Amino acid sequence: MVDNEPKKAAEASDAAPSRRGRAVRRSVSFVVLLATIAMVLALFLLRPQGVELPDIARKQLEAAITEVLPKGSSVRLGAANLRLSRNTQPVVRLTDLVLTDANQNPVANLPVSTITLSRLDLVRARVVPTAIDVRRLLLLVDRDEFGAFQISFGDGGALPPITTLADLITLIDDLVTRPPLSDVKCITLSDL
Questions:
Q1: 29, 46, 63 - which closes a domain
Q2: What is the residue range of 8's domain?
Q3: 158 and 102 together in one domain
Q4: Which among 17, 44, 91, 170 would be 20 to 30 A from 116, CA to CA?
Q5: Do residues 75 and 58 lie in contact, with contact meaning Cβ atoms separated by under 8 Å?
Q6: CB atoms within 10 A of CB 10
Q7: Three-state DSSP class for 131?
């Protein structure tokens, strides 16, 4: 019995340093994580023009936008830039966004668009747009002999008849009721 007691005491003394070591490693990791977050925020605040997204992120963004659009349509994106707004909201600025139908014919050209993202959802690793601002939108439409706009998009099927501005707003409203656009609180169109 006497021989077992020194072994137990030695094992207990070995366990204590490893617990302390884990606690120190966790503390150091937490401090490094906080410092990294602070440096990234400082980078964004010091560079008001933002950071250009790499090609792989741009392609993923194109794929995500294409998923929301009608079947058969696609998107070509010139560039994407990520920055923080004055109230530290993350904002993605898209340039030269072209929407095409199934035959790769351009349907709309959006030279400058900005999408404001939810901070809280980004922390949760979800990209949720809260506001969309489109400037200098160019929409390519035809009118039939009865005066109705003929807009085909996606797989070539015609969209619901759009003869008035109210019809266009209804179409946009239907588009933003589906995720991921369902959380958008404000859509601004200017310089049409």
A1: 46
A2: 1-46
A3: yes
A4: 170
A5: no
A6: 10
A7: strand
Judge contact between 116 and 90, C-beta under 8 A: yes
pLDDT score recorded for residue 63 = 86
Same domain, 56 and 38: no
51 CB-near residues (< 8 Å, 6+ apart): 43, 44, 81, 82, 83
Query: Could you tell me if 118 and 159 lie in one domain?
Result: yes
CA distance 159 to 83: 35
Enter the tokens of residue 54: 């790499």
Q: pLDDT below 70 — which residues of the chain?
A: 1-17, 41, 43-48, 140-142, 148-163, 180, 192
Angle at 183 between CA 181 and CA 187, to 5 degrees: 70
Round to whole Å and give the CA distance between 142 and 163. Answer: 11
Query: Could you give the angle at the alpha carbon of 70 between the alpha carbons of 68 and 74, nearest 5°?
Result: 80
Unique residue bearing structure tokens 């900005």: 114
Residue-level pLDDT at 93? 92
Q: Are 69 and 152 in contact (CB under 8 A)?
A: no
Distance CA 140, CA 192 (A): 12
Both 99 and 164 in a single domain? Answer: yes
CB atoms within 10 A of CB 83: 17
Domain count of the fold of the chain: 2
Q: Looking at the structure, tell me whether residues 38 and 61 fall in a common domain.
A: no
